[in-house]
Amino acid sequence: MPILCSSCSEKRAVLKRPKTGHSLCKECFFWAFEEEVHQTIVAAELFKPKEVVGIAASGGKDSTVLAHVMKLLNERYNYGLQLMLISVDEGITGYRDDSLETVKRNQQQYELPLKIVSYEELYGWTMDAIVKQVGLKNNCTFCGVFRRQALDRGAIMLKVDKICTGHNADDVAETVLMNVLRGDIARLRRCTTISTASEGDGVVPRCKPLKYAYEKEIVLYAYFKKLDYFSTECIYSPNAYRGHARTFLKDLESIRPSSIVDIIHSGENLSVREGVKMPVQGTCTRCGYISSQALCKSCVLLEGLNRGLPKLGIGKHHRLHEKLLSQQPLTDNEERKLKSVDF
Amino acid sequence: MACLSHLSSPAFRPNHLGGAELLFSGQKEHHVTLPSQSEPWDMKQLLVWIQRNLLKERPELFVQGDSVRPGILVLINDADWELMGELDYQLQNNDNVVFISTLHGG
């Protein structure tokens, strides 16, 4: 005997919401999901009327749902926003080239302008080329750092006021766990904020409208609405550290579904003890981008790649940055440490 | 996506969505007839059957213990299997089972 929707009591329930335990029919689920994103946007005052908003779109499930819901809510509640899609091509054969085809279809389906920026044009390196040099273990570090900057560059080219990304509740909870596991207090303190303020030239404020949306619901929303998205794991991701946090989180969710929002709640309410040393925000002496060191991470990573020293951005070699900046040669020992790579 | 379809006794169509089809040689839909037996087939037995007969590689990406790996959603006739008793649900003729993987980039 089918279970009835706990909201309308008329139709057959099609899912059990992990957040609340309620059983909802399709229409009530769509409504609940969309309304919650709307409440998230309103409560956090994420947007102002007339703003130009760039939706970071990869063709994957989260960004496709984000684009769909942003367009829907913009119309339903007259946010007055001008929406655009920004996509980053990291140069990963067999993964990104396929998902970009999906973004191009999304562009037509949602009738939104699209800008694609590529690592190749911005940095002169594709992820495929980077992995060849760096190996399979630390390549996500490069990709994440480069992509952040690439999104900002794309946003500036499109004259966008704000970027929104499809990060969901599971993502944010995983990040909290990762930062606890790695002892990264500075990031732990920042990682649950729903939006970033403008941090200087070249950095566009960004926000996460799907911050409280469970990944399960995003997938089911896309499935029941028959949204067009690309669904494969990045071929380089199996060794990413985040995978451990994700596996742990999924096991926690299966025992106690509210774990995900509870972890976010813990992260939001953490305060850091007085006297704990925190990095100070400055700018990169080479490119002017936001940085807590003399050289921003992007410049350090690029320097490492271009000089055949792949480990330069991995691990703590801050002393060496000074040497690099002043163009001093490195000792043989220093070079050897920076060259060795785990495959 | 893979669809499992039963034609005689219980018939069901499993679908694998969201990348899960890669574990099944890229085949999204499977129309299947389960061998008849005295008791009705339930989802727990189905998973064992799938692992033995359809899963082509990396079983640990699909099953974990008795159930599916956390992160894989199961829909029976387009409804969350959590509403239908999960592993205890007894399959019926022409049931449509869909497996959706959520474990990929967004």
From TrEMBL, chain A:
This is Cytoplasmic tRNA 2-thiolation protein 1. Residues 54-233 form the tRNA(Ile)-lysidine/2-thiocytidine synthase N-terminal domain. Pathway: tRNA modification; 5-methoxycarbonylmethyl-2-thiouridine-tRNA biosynthesis. Belongs to the TtcA family. CTU1/NCS6/ATPBD3 subfamily. ATP binds at A56, A57, S58, D62, V88, G166, D171. GO terms for biological process: protein urmylation; tRNA wobble position uridine thiolation. Plays a central role in 2-thiolation of mcm(5)S(2)U at tRNA wobble positions of tRNA(Lys), tRNA(Glu) and tRNA(Gln). Directly binds tRNAs and probably acts by catalyzing adenylation of tRNAs, an intermediate required for 2-thiolation. It is unclear whether it acts as a sulfurtransferase that transfers sulfur from thiocarboxylated URM1 onto the uridine of tRNAs at wobble position. Its EC number is 2.7.7.-. Gene3D superfamilies: HUPs. It comes from the Eukaryota. One of its GO terms (molecular function) is tRNA binding. The lineage of its organism: Eukaryota, Metazoa, Chordata, Craniata, Vertebrata. Keywords: ATP-binding, Cytoplasm, Nucleotide-binding, RNA-binding, Transferase, tRNA processing, tRNA-binding. It is found in: Cytoplasm. Residues 282-312 form the Cytoplasmic tRNA 2-thiolation protein 1 C-terminal domain. GO terms for cellular component: cytosolic tRNA wobble base thiouridylase complex; mitochondrion. The keyword Nucleotide-binding applies. PROSITE patterns: UPF0021.
Automatic annotation (TrEMBL), chain B:
Pathway: tRNA modification; 5-methoxycarbonylmethyl-2-thiouridine-tRNA biosynthesis. Gene3D superfamilies: 3.10.20.30. The keyword Secreted does not apply. CDD domains: Ubl_Urm1. C-terminal thiocarboxylation occurs in 2 steps, it is first acyl-adenylated (-COAMP) via the hesA/moeB/thiF part of MOCS3, then thiocarboxylated (-COSH) via the rhodanese domain of MOCS3. Keywords: Cytoplasm, Isopeptide bond, tRNA processing, Ubl conjugation pathway. It is found in: Cytoplasm. GO terms for biological process: protein urmylation; tRNA thio-modification; tRNA wobble uridine modification. There is a cross-link at G106 (Glycyl lysine isopeptide (Gly-Lys) (interchain with K-? in acceptor proteins)). The keyword Transcription regulation does not apply. It comes from the Eukaryota. GO terms for cellular component: cytosol. The modification 1-thioglycine is found at G106. Belongs to the URM1 family. Acts as a sulfur carrier required for 2-thiolation of mcm(5)S(2)U at tRNA wobble positions of cytosolic tRNA(Lys), tRNA(Glu) and tRNA(Gln). Serves as sulfur donor in tRNA 2-thiolation reaction by being thiocarboxylated (-COSH) at its C-terminus by MOCS3. The sulfur is then transferred to tRNA to form 2-thiolation of mcm(5)S(2)U. Also acts as a ubiquitin-like protein (UBL) that is covalently conjugated via an isopeptide bond to lysine residues of target proteins. HAMAP family: Urm1. PANTHER family: RURM1 PROTEIN. This is Ubiquitin-related modifier 1.
